[in-house]
C-alpha cells in the first residue's frame, strides 16, 4: 500500500517520543506537536528529546516540529494524541482548527477528568469527531523498549478495520508487529482499567503480599475487566488477546509503572496526597478509578478490585483492611 | 467438619515441605515419607528440613516421619505425592501396599517420563487407583512464600467436588485460601503446560526479548493452553481462573522458576545437555515438553509455543531462529 497519509503525534512525553520514532522508520515526514519550545529547540539542535527516551536519535529533517497545536492539526490527516489525559482538555482549548475530515487516534489510555469520558468518547462529544474516525493505539508496550528496538506488539483499533489496517502499516517494522482490532471501546477501556489494576498490584506489594497473591490478583483482574467491558460495550472479543490481557500484564508486572509505584506508596502507608506530591505527578489511574467506579454504579458489573482501589483513593479507607476484605473475595 | 482423615505427604523437596507445613497448622499428625534418612534425622533433631525451606520450624511431635514408603502409604487415607515426576516411577517400584480405599493426590505437576502420562492418569493406569479417588493439588503457589506465610491460594480438584471440599478444609488457614474444582484433568495439564511456557519465557529472556514480548507470550500461552486442554478433556472451565492463568503467571514471571532458568540458559547459548549439567537437575518442563508435544500430534491443537520449545529441546534447533519464527505467529 502506498503511504500517503500525513500523520502527526501530539505530546512530548516518552510514549509520544516512541510513537514518533516508530513512524519515522517508514515515513519521510512526521508532524510533532509539543508544548515546550525548549524541548523543540533541543531536538532540532541535538537530535533527541531532552527529557524522554533521550537515547533515541532522530533525523530532524523528517520531523515537522511545532509548539503550535493548530499548525500541526491543520497539517495532519491523522492526529495521534499522546498527551496525559489530565492536560488534554486544557491543551485543546487553544484549538481553532477543525478535525473535519481527519482521523483522531487516542494513544492516551486515560479518562479526561473534567468529563469522565474515555478519550475517544471525549473527541466524539466535545470535538465533533465522528466515531468512525476515532481510533485507538494500544500496547502492550513500554516506550522504553521501543527506544531499545526490542520486539513489541501494538494494536490499532478503528470501528472500520480497513482504517485500522491502513494505519497499522505505518507502524510495522523490524521490531514492531502491529495488529488490528475493531473494538475501539473495549481496547480503550482495557487500557484505562489496567492502570487501576496496576495501582492495586502496587498496593498489594506495598502491603507485603507476594508473588502468589499477585498472580491471583491478575487472574481476577482479567475476569473483572471482561465483566466490566462487556457492560460498557457488548461484542465478540477474546479478553486474552494481547491488547487486553497482554496490556494488563505488561503494566501489572512492571516495576517502572507509575501507577504501580503510586499504589506501592499507598500500601507502604503514604496518604494519597503525599504519594502524589512525592511523585510530583499524578498517575493516570488516579482519575480513571473515580470515573470507572462512577460509571459502574450505573452498570453494576461485579468489580471488587476496582471498588477496593476506589475506597482507598477516594474514601480514605485503610489499605490493609480493604485488601484483607478483598482477598476474601478473590478466587 | 470434623477432621478425621489421615493424610500423608510423600516427598522431601520444597513443595512437599510446604504442604506438610500447611497441614500441620490444623492437624495433630501428618505422615511424611522421604527417601533420605539423613534428612529425617535432621528434622527430628533440629525441627527443620536441612535442604529445603529450612526457615520453617516443625513441631516434630506432629510428624509421622519415615523413609519406608510402605509404612506411610499404609498409614494414610490420603496420599499427597510431591516427588519429582522423573523419580515417581522408581520410587513406587518399592511399593507393596495397595492404594485400595485411599485417595491419591498429585501435587507433582509433571509427566511421568517412562509412561508419558500425567500423574493422575499414571496412578489410575499403573497403580489401579480409581479416577474418582484421584485428586490434584495446585497453585498458584511458590513454596517459598508458604514458608513466609504470605497469603496464597491453592486449588484442590477431585471429580467429585465433595471430596475436594473435604480435603480443602485441611489446608485453609490464615494465610491459605483453598478453592475447589472438579477439573482433575485440566488443572493437572495446566500445571504441566505452564512449566513448558516458563521455559519459553526463559528462552525469550535469554535471547534478549523484553517485557513487551513477555506479555504477548503469556497472553498467547493462555490461549494455547485453553486450546490444548479443550482437546484433552472438553468441559466447562474458565481458563482465567487462578488454577490455570494464575498458575501460569506465577511461574512464567518468576525469576526463581527452575524451568524459566533452564530456558534462560538455552536462550543464552547453552546446549540442552550443558544447561542440565549446570543446573545439576532436570527441570520438570523438559520431560513435559516431549510428552505434551507427542500427545498433541494426535490431538492437533494449534500450539506454536509448545512446538517451538520442543524443536529447541529435542530437535536441536537454533533458539534464535525458532523464536524469530514464533514471534511472527504470535498476536
From TrEMBL, chains A, B:
<feature type="binding site">
    <location>
        <position position="143"/>
    </location>
    <ligand>
        <name>NAD(+)</name>
    </ligand>
</feature>
<dbReference type="InterPro" id="IPR006168">
    <property type="entry name" value="G3P_DH_NAD-dep"/>
</dbReference>
<dbReference type="Pfam" id="PF07479">
    <property type="entry name" value="NAD_Gly3P_dh_C"/>
</dbReference>
<feature type="domain" description="Glycerol-3-phosphate dehydrogenase NAD-dependent N-terminal">
    <location>
        <begin position="6"/>
        <end position="162"/>
    </location>
</feature>
<feature type="domain" description="Glycerol-3-phosphate dehydrogenase NAD-dependent C-terminal">
    <location>
        <begin position="183"/>
        <end position="323"/>
    </location>
</feature>
<comment type="similarity">
    <text>Belongs to the NAD-dependent glycerol-3-phosphate dehydrogenase family.</text>
</comment>
<feature type="binding site">
    <location>
        <position position="258"/>
    </location>
    <ligand>
        <name>NAD(+)</name>
    </ligand>
</feature>
<dbReference type="GO" id="GO:0005829">
    <property type="term" value="C:cytosol"/>
</dbReference>
<dbReference type="InterPro" id="IPR008927">
    <property type="entry name" value="6-PGluconate_DH-like_C_sf"/>
</dbReference>
<dbReference type="InterPro" id="IPR013328">
    <property type="entry name" value="6PGD_dom2"/>
</dbReference>
<dbReference type="InterPro" id="IPR036291">
    <property type="entry name" value="NAD(P)-bd_dom_sf"/>
</dbReference>
<keyword id="KW-0443">Lipid metabolism</keyword>
<keyword id="KW-0444">Lipid biosynthesis</keyword>
<feature type="active site" description="Proton acceptor">
    <location>
        <position position="194"/>
    </location>
</feature>
<feature type="binding site">
    <location>
        <begin position="258"/>
        <end position="259"/>
    </location>
    <ligand>
        <name>substrate</name>
    </ligand>
</feature>
<dbReference type="GO" id="GO:0141153">
    <property type="term" value="F:glycerol-3-phosphate dehydrogenase (NADP+) activity"/>
</dbReference>
<dbReference type="InterPro" id="IPR006109">
    <property type="entry name" value="G3P_DH_NAD-dep_C"/>
</dbReference>
<feature type="binding site">
    <location>
        <position position="87"/>
    </location>
    <ligand>
        <name>NAD(+)</name>
    </ligand>
</feature>
<dbReference type="InterPro" id="IPR011128">
    <property type="entry name" value="G3P_DH_NAD-dep_N"/>
</dbReference>
<keyword id="KW-1208">Phospholipid metabolism</keyword>
<dbReference type="GO" id="GO:0005975">
    <property type="term" value="P:carbohydrate metabolic process"/>
</dbReference>
<keyword id="KW-0594">Phospholipid biosynthesis</keyword>
<keyword id="KW-0560">Oxidoreductase</keyword>
<dbReference type="GO" id="GO:0051287">
    <property type="term" value="F:NAD binding"/>
</dbReference>
<dbReference type="Pfam" id="PF01210">
    <property type="entry name" value="NAD_Gly3P_dh_N"/>
</dbReference>
<protein>
    <recommendedName>
        <fullName>Glycerol-3-phosphate dehydrogenase</fullName>
        <ecNumber>1.1.1.94</ecNumber>
    </recommendedName>
</protein>
<dbReference type="GO" id="GO:0046168">
    <property type="term" value="P:glycerol-3-phosphate catabolic process"/>
</dbReference>
<feature type="binding site">
    <location>
        <position position="109"/>
    </location>
    <ligand>
        <name>substrate</name>
    </ligand>
</feature>
<dbReference type="GO" id="GO:0008654">
    <property type="term" value="P:phospholipid biosynthetic process"/>
</dbReference>
<keyword id="KW-0520">NAD</keyword>
Amino acid at each position: 500500500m502506498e503511504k500517503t497519509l500525513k500523520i502527526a503525534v501530539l505530546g512530548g512525553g516518552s510514549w509520544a517520543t516512541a510513537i514518533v520514532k516508530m513512524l519515522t522508520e517508514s515515513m519521510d515526514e512526521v508532524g510533532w506537536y509539543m508544548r515546550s519550545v525548549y524541548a523543540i529547540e533541543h531536538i532540532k539542535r541535538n537530535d533527541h528529546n531532552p527529557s524522554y527516551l533521550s537515547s533515541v536519535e532522530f533525523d530532524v529533517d523528517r520531523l515537522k516540529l511545532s509548539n503550535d497545536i493548530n499548525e500541526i492539526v491543520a497539517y495532519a490527516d491523522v492526529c495521534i494524541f499522546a498527551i496525559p489525559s489530565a492536560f488534554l482538555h486544557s491543551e485543546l482549548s487553544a484549538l481553532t482548527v477543525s478535525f473535519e475530515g481527519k482521523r483522531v487516534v487516542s494513544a492516551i489510555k486515560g479518562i479526561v477528568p473534567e468529563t469522565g469520558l474515555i478519550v475517544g468518547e471525549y473527541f466524539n462529544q466535545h470535538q465533533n469527531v465522528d466515531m468512525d474516525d476515532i481510533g485507538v493505539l494500544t500496547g502492550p508496550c513500554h516506550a522504553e523498549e521501543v527506544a531499545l528496538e526490542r520486539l513489541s506488539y501494538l494494536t490499532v483499533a478503528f470501528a472500520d478495520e480497513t482504517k485500522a489496517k491502513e494505519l497499522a502499516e505505518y507502524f510495522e517494522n523490524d521490531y514492531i508487529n502491529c495488529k488490528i482490532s475493531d473494538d475501539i471501546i473495549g481496547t480503550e477501556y482495557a487500557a484505562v482499567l489496567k492502570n487501576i489494576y496496576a495501582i492495586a498490584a502496587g498496593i498489594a506489594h506495598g502491603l507485603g503480599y507476594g508473588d502468589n497473591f499477585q498472580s491471583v490478583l491478575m487472574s481476577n483482574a482479567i475476569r473483572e475487566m471482561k465483566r466490566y467491558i462487556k457492560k460498557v460495550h457488548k461484542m465478540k472479543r477474546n479478553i486474552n488477546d494481547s491488547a487486553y490481557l497482554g496490556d494488563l500484564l505488561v503494566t501489572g508486572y512492571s516495576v517502572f509503572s507509575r501507577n504501580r509505584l503510586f499504589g506501592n506508596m499507598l500500601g507502604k502507608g503514604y496518604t494519597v496526597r503525599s504519594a502524589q506530591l512525592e511523585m510530583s505527578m499524578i498517575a493516570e489511574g488516579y482519575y480513571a478509578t473515580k470515573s470507572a467506579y462512577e460509571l459502574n454504579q450505573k452498570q453494576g458489573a461485579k468489580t471488587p478490585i476496582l471498588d477496593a482501589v476506589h475506597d482507598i483513593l477516594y474514601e480514605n479507607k485503610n489499605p490493609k483492611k480493604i485488601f484483607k476484605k478483598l482477598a476474601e473475595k478473590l478466587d
